[in-house]
């Protein structure tokens, strides 16, 4: 009789994630409700690029990428889970990853530039729901700033550069999604040209996920304006 062996990586992942994060993830997969802000960016009317405190270059990464494994060694808890998810996306073939690097070649920031041709690969491995993309639409998702480079304005620089990549490829409109309570990311997206477009509600009940998009309520529009207003 063959003995089944557990993957030793699973025990490592559970330990590094921590009991609280694991319990929350299990609850969210069984019963949960969430709302994300759907943002739109007109690629023909981009604001000036907001450069980070360190010089960056941005390019596509279609082959092996060492950055996620390095980041797993530095992180724990929720960040560890975010990195695991992005590593899986890249490993299973969602090959539209773009990486911003500093002058020493270190990975600083990553984000996926999803075109209509990339949607099939994305939908096979990601549980989230995204509305269909038009011929000249793109989706920017799964942004991540590596921990040694946070607080340096990296997100605005990296995303701003990625929007210009999309423009050069012929796209006209970009979309992205941000949790309603992630004020820092909402502000970062607003700085590079995103505006409020719609809301995405997701409900999970006994593991069955249902999502739909809708217009923002007047209160949600006010919250967007308050979250992204210039600070005095």
Distance between the termini: 70 Å
Unreliably modeled segments = 1-6
- Indicate the radius of gyration in whole angstroms: 18 Å
Counting DSSP E segments of at least 2 residues, the number of strands comes to: 8
Note the main attributes of this structure.
38% helix; 232 residues; 8 helices; 8 strands
Please provide a written account of the structure.
The chain is an alpha+beta fold and 232 residues long. It has one domain (33-228): Gcn5-related N-acetyltransferase (GNAT) (Aminopeptidase, 3-Layer(aba) Sandwich). It has helices spanning 8-17, 19-30, 67-74, 77-91, 119-125, 154-168, 183-191, 218-228, and strands at residues 31-42, 57-60, 97-101, 107-114, 137-145, 173-179, 195-205, 208-214. The chain has an eight-stranded mixed β-sheet with strand order 2-3-4-5-6-1-7-8. Helix 3 runs antiparallel to helix 4 (77-91).
Element layout with pairings:
Blueprint: H1 8-17, H2 19-30, E1 31-42, E2 57-60, H3 67-74, H4 77-91, E3 97-101, E4 107-114, H5 119-125, E5 137-145, H6 154-168, E6 173-179, H7 183-191, E7 195-205, E8 208-214, H8 218-228
Parallel strand pairs: 5-6
Antiparallel strand pairs: 1-6, 1-7, 2-3, 3-4, 4-5, 7-8
Quick recap:
The chain is globular and about 50 Å long.
């Amino acid at each position: 009789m063959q003995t089944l062996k557990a993957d030793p990586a699973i025990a490592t992942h559970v330990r590094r994630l921590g009991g609280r994060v694991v319990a929350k993830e299990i609850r969210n997969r069984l019963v949960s409700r969430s709302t994300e802000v759907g943002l739109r960016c007109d690629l023909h009317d981009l604001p000036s690029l907001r450069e980070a405190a360190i010089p960056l270059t941005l390019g596509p990464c279609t082959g092996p990428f060492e950055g996620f494994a390095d980041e797993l060694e530095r992180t724990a808890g929720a960040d560890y889970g975010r990195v695991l998810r992005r590593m899986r996306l890249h490993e299973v073939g969602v090959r539209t990853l773009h990486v911003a690097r500093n002058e020493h070649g270190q990975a600083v920031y990553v984000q996926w530039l999803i075109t209509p041709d990339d949607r099939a690969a994305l939908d096979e491995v990601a549980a989230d729901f995204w509305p269909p993309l038009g011929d000249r639409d793109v989706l920017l998702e799964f942004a991540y700033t590596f921990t040694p480079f946070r607080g340096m304005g990296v997100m605005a620089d990296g995303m701003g550069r990625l929007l210009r990549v999309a423009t050069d490829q012929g796209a006209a409109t970009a979309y992205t999604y941000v949790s309603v309570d992630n004020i820092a990311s909402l502000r970062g997206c607003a700085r590079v040209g995103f505006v409020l477009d719609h809301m995405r509600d997701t409900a999970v009940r006994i593991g069955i996920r249902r999502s739909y998009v809708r217009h923002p309520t007047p209160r949600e529009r006010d919250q967007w304006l308050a979250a992204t207003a210039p600070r005095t």
